[in-house]
Amino acid sequence: MSFYQIVFSPSGGTQxxxxxxxxxxxxxNTRIDLTDRSRDFSLLSFTPEDLCVVSxxxxxxxxxxxxxxxxxQMKGNKARAVLLVVYGNRAYxxxxxxxxxxxxxxxxxxxxxVAAVAEHSIMRQFAAGRPDAQxxxxxxxxxxxxxxxxxxxxxxxxxxxxxxxxxREYNGVPMKPGAGKSCIQCGLCAEKCPVGAIxxxxxxxxxxxxxxxxxxxxxxxxxxxxxVSRMLLAAGSVKMKKVCGGRKKNELYL
Length: 254
Fold this sequence. Notes:
- This protein has seven helices and eight strands.
- It is of the alpha/beta class.
- Helix content is 31%, strand content 16%.
- It is globular, with a radius of gyration of 18 Å.
- The strands form two sheets. Strands 2-1-3-4-5-8 form a six-stranded mixed beta sheet, sandwiched between helices.
- Helix 1 crosses helix 4 (133-152).
């Protein structure tokens, strides 16, 4: 049996949750980075003995389109999959349902799922500091439940998840990062952008038609030169305050 992390985590929150889950479940694993747009994912093929933790953030209640495309290229071959969706304290809507459909279509057998909270990738005051110690304890305990289910040989084909079809419509958000005067043209953001929205020849620019507002460029910039509009950020924070307030629970499905 081989263990895999298959992760789309542009700004690090989804990876952090994934690491907390796999730490106690399968600490020795191979990580497959779904943000790597240069990789040929069609070369990846799994076996029924393999276990894959497939992790994505929820963008507007949906799986990021780039992650969908790259997962569809792989061959699941009835490998077992634990679905892990991470959201920024609003709601994950149809993300789990869509991820399950994507993985089932690609040949995986979905055996368990988690909808976990992490710090919002744009408005970081929401769910600040999460995942925290309580989250770590919950994820570790659930990982042990999944392990026991696998070892017991219990039915792994009856997973029931929330979500609607057709999926919730998502057209992106208007907050697209740009670079200020402190940009040194190092090109790191252009190299690491999951969708190639930053020109290599002029990394101070952003192709708004391709940008998915994942905020990776902001997280990676060594000079803190990239940012979103402060006015839009303030307006978005006011709009989201009511739905993102309070402590949301992690939801576990087995």
